[in-house]
């Protein structure tokens, strides 16, 4: 019997192991769990932890996250709250601009979706220009799909009064045809490209951003993630961090098939390139396919027309035909990859399922497919998830009434909010539900405790304002915990390595300040992580 490097005793260990739900302790040997609730050999160098009865969980998993954008936002950028008004945003921009050298950019977020509607005027652009004091400004919204920029940024992009909209995006203009500085979808990527070109040392910036993101994840109890749009610079930064022994989480990469949030190499070329970066902690096992946009800008692809549009038949934007999607997935399967498919609208979800049905008929059950974000699924399509072995990537944590859902309610057809986020139906029907923050979308931090609580209550944190979003679709605490642990790890293809406390798995675990089963559900969002361990090594301590 090997000597344990670490032994945990006197704990309330919720293992997420279907064969042993609770344990009092465990041992760690060579970075892996051993001897769960069993005798173990110790030595003079064995670290003994008396947990004092505290709750221990497996390291949490996040099935959908953007490490580069989230880390950069925290490390470098101007913090904006989704509730900030246009005037408050301009005041923050002015204060930041006053600190910068000439020509430096003001970059920040998160601008609330409702605010993005309010600033789509030439007058608001003039206010932003005045606040910027000549600096280019780039502000991201709460979906990360859209931007608010000033005239200096439009000029840097080469956008003039008569510049046509880019394919898959738009430069929002007012009724008189004047630019407002609001950019939607692919127009946002063009602004990001110009901004990145202005950075003196983007590689160094990426490393700092990733290190910051890993620290934030560890502080939140997260040790395994699926990066949802992984471009080549991020792969290089991950490799450098791992080489320096500074990567303190496990990353499953999803390489885009087309340019989306960033410009650069995509598709089959990026799939081949990503293999150079495969390592013990970086798993480039998925691609990312974006089928539609987001509801608040009426770019989600729906089965029902959006109300109040000039075209009474307008149902949003679909970015692939069925044949194009089938051809794309054929390339993906041939490369041995899985696919994470962005589908926020029910029409997009249906096309995705139709394409996956073709893949299953051709290739059987091998390839892994995730549908993100499973917010709007037609009732007839819900059973198809299980039949086709599709994972429900439930992200971001917006399955309760709040700013984003209020914005959605203003644009979506009647009845859509009444059936939103059908997680109970999916889970009861045999579909794995895996939870993801989609950070930095919607929230400034990837706080899993907000997601966990609201998945159970379908109300805002602490009960919010008392409203409930489709409460019949709520999950139980044990079910929700699996969505943040074992089921997410299995969905990523890492079920034998992570997601539960079982002998032989990586010793990723967290110590909490409270037992989630002993408190009111509406207090779960106040939970704090005291310690996080990754591969048996402490990577975060609140002390």
Automatic annotation (TrEMBL):
This is Amidohydrolase. InterPro entries: Amidohydro_3, Metal-dep_hydrolase_composite, Metal_Hydrolase, YtcJ-like. Keywords: Hydrolase. One of its GO terms (molecular function) is hydrolase activity, acting on carbon-nitrogen (but not peptide) bonds. Residues 47-540 form the Amidohydrolase domain. It comes from Nocardia panacis. The lineage of its organism: Bacteria, Bacillati, Actinomycetota, Actinomycetes, Mycobacteriales. Pfam families: Amidohydro_3 (PF07969). SUPFAM superfamilies: Composite domain of metallo-dependent hydrolases, Metallo-dependent hydrolases. PANTHER family: IMIDAZOLONEPROPIONASE (PTHR22642), PROTEIN LONG AFTER FAR-RED 3 (PTHR22642:SF2).
């Amino acid at each position: 019997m090997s000597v344990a490097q670490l032994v945990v005793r006197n704990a309330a260990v919720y293992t997420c192991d279907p064969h042993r739900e609770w344990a009092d302790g465990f041992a760690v040997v060579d970075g892996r769990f051993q001897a769960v609730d069993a005798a173990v050999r110790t030595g003079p160098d064995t670290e003994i932890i008396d947990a004092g009865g505290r709750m221990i969980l497996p390291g949490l998993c996040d099935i959908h996250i953007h490490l580069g954008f989230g880390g950069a936002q925290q490390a470098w950028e101007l913090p904006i709250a989704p509730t900030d008004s246009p005037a408050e945003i301009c005041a923050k921009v002015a204060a930041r601009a006053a600190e910068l050298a000439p020509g430096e950019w003001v970059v920040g977020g998160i601008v609330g979706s409702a605010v993005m509607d309010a600033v789509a005027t030439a007058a608001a652009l003039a206010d932003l220009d005045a606040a910027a004091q000549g600096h280019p400004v780039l502000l991201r919204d709460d979906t990360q799909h859209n931007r608010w920029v000033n005239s200096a940024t439009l000029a840097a992009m080469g956008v003039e009064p008569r510049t046509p909209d880019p394919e898959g995006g738009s430069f929002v203009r007012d009724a008189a045809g004047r630019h407002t500085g609001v950019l939607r979808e692919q127009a946002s990527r063009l602004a990001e490209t110009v901004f990145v070109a202005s950075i003196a040392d983007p590689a160094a910036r990426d490393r700092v951003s990733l290190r910051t993101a890993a620290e934030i994840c560890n502080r939140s109890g997260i040790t395994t993630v699926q990066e949802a749009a992984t471009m080549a610079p991020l792969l290089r930064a991950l490799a450098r961090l791992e080489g320096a022994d500074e990567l303190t989480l496990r990353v499953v990469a999803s390489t885009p098939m087309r340019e989306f949030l960033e410009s650069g190499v995509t598709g089959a070329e990026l799939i081949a390139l990503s293999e150079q970066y495969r390592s013990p902690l970086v798993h480039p096992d998925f691609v990312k396919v974006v089928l539609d946009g987001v509801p608040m800008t009426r770019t989600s692809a729906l089965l029902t027309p959006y109300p109040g549009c000039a075209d009474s038949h307008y149902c949003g934007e679909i970015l692939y035909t069925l044949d194009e999607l089938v051809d794309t997935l054929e390339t993906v399967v041939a490369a041995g990859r899985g696919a994470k498919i962005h589908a926020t609208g029910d029409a997009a979800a249906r096309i995705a399922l139709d394409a996956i049905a073709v893949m299953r008929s051709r290739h059987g059950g091998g390839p892994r497919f995730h549908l993100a974000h499973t917010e709007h699924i037609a009732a007839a399509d819900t059973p198809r998830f299980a039949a086709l072995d599709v994972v429900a990537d439930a992200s971001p944590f917006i399955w309760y009434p709040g700013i984003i859902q209020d914005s959605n309610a203003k644009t979506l057809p009647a009845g859509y909010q009444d059936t939103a986020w059908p997680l109970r139906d999916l889970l009861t029907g045999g579909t794995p539900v895996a939870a993801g923050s989609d950070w930095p979308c919607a929230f400034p931090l990837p706080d899993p405790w907000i997601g966990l609580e609201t998945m159970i209550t379908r109300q805002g944190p602490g009960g919010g304002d008392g409203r409930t979003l489709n409460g019949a679709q709520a999950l139980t605490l044990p079910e929700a915990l699996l969505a943040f642990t074992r089921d997410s790890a299995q969905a990523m293809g890492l079920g034998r390595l992570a997601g539960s406390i079982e002998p032989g798995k990586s010793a990723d675990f967290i110590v909490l300040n409270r037992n989630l089963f002993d408190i009111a559900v509406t207090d779960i969002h106040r939970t704090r992580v005291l310690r996080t361990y990754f591969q048996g090594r402490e990577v975060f301590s609140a002390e």
